[in-house]
Design a protein that fits this description.
The chain is an alpha/beta fold and about 350 residues long. It has a single domain (about 15-345), classed as Rossmann fold. The protein is about 25% helix and about 20% strand. The chain contains nine helices and 15 strands. The chain has helices at about 40-50, 155-160, 195-210, 225-235, 265, 270-275, 295-300, 325, 330-340, and strands spanning about 15, 25, 25-30, 30, 85-90, 95-100, 110-115, 125-130, 130-135, 170, 220-225, 245, 280-290, 310-315, 345. The strands form three sheets. Strands 3, 4, 5, 6, 7, 9, 10, 11, 12, 13 and 14 form an eleven-stranded mixed sheet that branches. α4 links the parallel β11 (about 220-225) and β12 (about 245). It is globular and about 50 Å long.
């Protein structure tokens, strides 16, 4: 994990003041996402929407991706879960908070879920939505920066209904304590945070919300150290995720815990997977245009990319490793994800 240093504009996220005046230490994450747009799926989506009176999704961008089956509503099950949630104030859509006891991992941490405005509209009552795993910067202990408004992600997605996909945001805490910097991985002798994030959280979301089940409907993103977590999630599970966006991220584990040097753990580093396995995923890398650790890490990672992995690097002129600059990367981030992941798909009613 990296720590923020606003005075030196370090690679970690600085402390960010919330509207209430609270200071939260933040880590930011990267994501990888994609969505299939085969003609048949698009036609089915539009025709079904027209027949049911639902608004047309024709305004959403489409993209063709290789090696991915089209997302269909037939396998998107009606939610049957019984997880208990507490509403959190949101100016747009709904934010729900829960404490999840992971059945597979044995780890218990908070998870927040944001439902876009369309999720509760009658016209979309029988529609399954694509989902994004979004990781915070900093330690991510008991909070997630994406829940707040500092990045402007929810506001951007909700305000671009005709051009940006209405994703369901999944925003878990990343660590149990600041002293257990597991870097979203299962380190020997430590709580299985990697399993919690990759298995338990996804299972809970699929059981309780109308989300698409296949990889074409799932992506990830994060900032700073959260970007590492997002990239690790997608590169380690390309059968479940199609795209990721890394904002100011790095690609090899950084932790003082002894388990971080374990060969199995290091084999799951995004850099190692990219160099040896070339998973069929789409990647967007964001960095400041200024020479520094972020740009160096992004270029080094990009050099390891080979087909069928697809990756591109975008830079922000005059940017720094700061939340205010990460926020400027949000429009491009969600435009990318909208063009590499599935649009919402109608499903059969009850």
């Amino acid at each position: 994990m990296r720590t923020a240093d606003a005075s030196r504009l370090g690679r970690r996220c600085p402390r960010v003041w919330s509207l209430g005046g609270n200071v939260l230490g933040m880590r930011l994450l990267g994501t990888r996402l994609r969505w299939p747009a085969l003609l048949g799926t698009l036609l089915v989506t539009l025709l079904t929407a027209a027949c049911s009176g639902a608004p047309s999704l024709s305004g959403l961008p489409t993209a063709t991706t290789s090696g991915t089956a089209p997302a269909t509503g037939a396998s998107a099950a009606t939610p049957t879960g019984h997880q208990r949630f507490t509403p959190v104030r949101s100016d747009t859509g709904r934010i729900l908070e829960t404490t999840l006891a992971g059945a597979r991992s044995g780890v218990t941490m908070k998870v927040w879920v944001w439902l876009p405005p369309q999720y509760d509209q009658p016209a979309f009552a029988h529609t399954a939505f694509p989902a994004l795993m979004l990781y915070p910067g900093g330690a991510g202990v008991g909070h997630n920066a994406w829940v707040g408004s500092s990045l402007g992600a929810r506001e951007f997605v909700a305000g671009r209904a005709q051009t940006v996909t209405p994703f369901v945001f999944v925003m878990p805490a990343m660590q149990l304590s600041v002293d257990q910097d597991t870097e979203c991985a299962d380190l020997p002798g430590q709580p299985k945070v990697g399993t919690f994030l990759s298995v338990d959280v996804r299972r809970m979301v699929m059981d309780n919300f109308r989300v698409l089940p296949g990889r074409a409907g799932w992506g990830a993103a994060g900032t700073s150290s959260g970007a590492y977590c997002a990239a690790r999630l997608v590169f380690d599970h390309p059968d479940q995720y199609a795209a990721v966006v890394s904002i100011g991220g790095y690609f090899t584990i950084e932790t003082n815990l002894p388990g971080g040097s374990d060969p199995v753990v290091r084999a799951g580093d995004p850099a190692a997977v990219a160099a040896g396995q070339h998973p069929d995923v789409s990647v967007l890398l964001w960095s400041s245009a200024s020479p520094g650790p972020d740009l160096k890490a992004a270029r080094r990672f990009l050099a390891e990319i080979r087909p069928p992995t697809r990756a591109e690097l975008r830079t922000l002129p005059g940017g720094n490793h700061l939340t205010v600059d990460f926020a400027k990367m949000i429009p491009g981030t969600f435009t990318f994800l909208s063009s590499h992941l599935s649009a919402p798909v109608p499903v059969a009613g009850p």
